[in-house]
Amino acid sequence: MGAVAPATTPVERSAIRKISIRLVPFVALMFFVNYLDRTAISFAEPNGMGEDLALTAAQFGFASGIFFLGYIVLEVPSNMALHRFGARRWLARIMVTWGIVSLLFTWVDNSGQLYVLRFLLGVAEAGFFPGAILFLSQWVPGRHRTKVLGLFYLAQPLTTVLGAPLAGWLIGHHGLFGLEGWRVMFLFVSIPAIVLGVIAWFYLSDKPTDAKWLTREEQEWLTTKLAEESEGKTGARAGHGKDALKAAFGNARVWVLSLVYFGFVYGLYALAFFLPTIISGFQEQFDTTFSVMDRAWITAIPYLPAAVALYFWTRHATKHGTRTWHIAGPAVVGGLSIPLALYMGSPAATVAVITVTACAIFAALPVFWSVPSRYLTGAAAAAGIALINTMGNIAGFGSSYITGWVKDWTGSYTASLYLVGFFMLLSAVLIVSLAARERRTAATGSGAGDGDGEGGASREPVEAAR
Q: SUPFAM superfamilies under this entry (predicted)?
């Protein structure tokens, strides 16, 4: 990954500033609602849903994870459709569809219905996250991408910082409309997705030349710069169909990056889905009592420092040049810290260690997502980013189901958290190995064996050779 970026021009600064103000907050808000909807089940389970539907830990884990199976089925086709039909139409369609499915959780009556709706929610949401990443990547040149994706990614930890207390507050309205508290929560977190989907249809622009809020000079600069960067990347000459898929699926880097992302997401969703349940377990483990709102606020604690860490880590990566240690370092910290939570002697100490893990995961993720677009462009980028995110969704299913299953089998979360640590350390090893391979390739000037899918693939190394 490159060295420190040169000074910017006035038109460049104004264009990036307008994108950061006009597009990024809105897409981040969409992501906020997206992540809240998919993780709402984690707040519902320990606050009445688990008891009302008679769910075991394994059943809850399966219900949490089956979402990702539905997502996986349509992820790559959905991102290819977004590239063909435009982000404005496709992201709006996704939001309205998932909002309707999410609304149906209000009336779920048994575990079977829960499984079906979670699967359908994954189908409805398929392509949203990689589509949002692709959309923003196609608006900003590479030197600004880490910063923009970092601002976008702030929505994810802030979803829990704000969403956990909001969920607790909604759950506290037990009896509203004759519904249990957890059903009230599902009702009110679903509506924003439908509303935002309708707004997105009219608010978003597919490309800089469609944006009336940019000056002609800004449009021309962005279009020219993005076109220059696309030259030489895998997919630059590929079409929409088989050629684009071949360019992405035949790129060895994409598969390594998919495995790196697998490790991060395994940790992310193990925390997201089971942290509220683990916190509920503090009452028995440490002989204490927490109200619904207490548990909601404790759940939110790790994510506020994580948002701060994410912001400053991406700023550092943007200012000094994104390097392998910006990704590998947090993976090592997260992999080593998460098992330590097992040995803490109080709720405060346990949450403190989990906070370190959350900071590590969220610091690395936006930096990681600046990497795929260094190698891929066009429809190949759509397919490649979707493939990487598909591996993340496999991790989401695996971490959710395996964590619950191992808890039922062993009676504790000990083995599950060690497994989280293992996968995160594996991510660190893989990204370092990829960087070393890229340096060797750059040193020899040979791309042989890259598996890039076409001779004009980018030779830009993952890390500057220093």
A: MFS general substrate transporter
